[in-house]
Amino acid sequence: QTEHVRVPGAGHMIPWDNEAGFYEALGDFLGASICPP
């Protein structure tokens, strides 16, 4: 099953459009907090 997640303020280049939102969504997916580099 595929999960679809929307990151507010991000287009198709999520890490560049909304970096904080990208890491938040990735952390939710992985079940762990992800701190940006």
Can you summarize this structure?
The chain is 43% helix and 0% strand.
Commentary on this structure:
The chain has 37 residues and is mainly alpha-helical. It has two helices and no strands.
Keywords:
37 residues; mainly alpha; 0% strand
Q: Taking all residues together, what is the mean pLDDT?
A: 80
How much helicity do the residues have? 40-55%
With helices defined by DSSP (H or I, 4 residues minimum), what is the helix count? Answer: 2
Distance between the termini: 30 Å
Largest sheet data: none
Q: Please provide the count of β strands.
A: 0
Structural shape:
flat
Rg over CA atoms = 10 Å
Order of helices and strands: HH
Low-confidence stretches: none
Instruction: Report the sheet-strand fraction.
Output: under 5%
- Class by SSE composition: mainly alpha
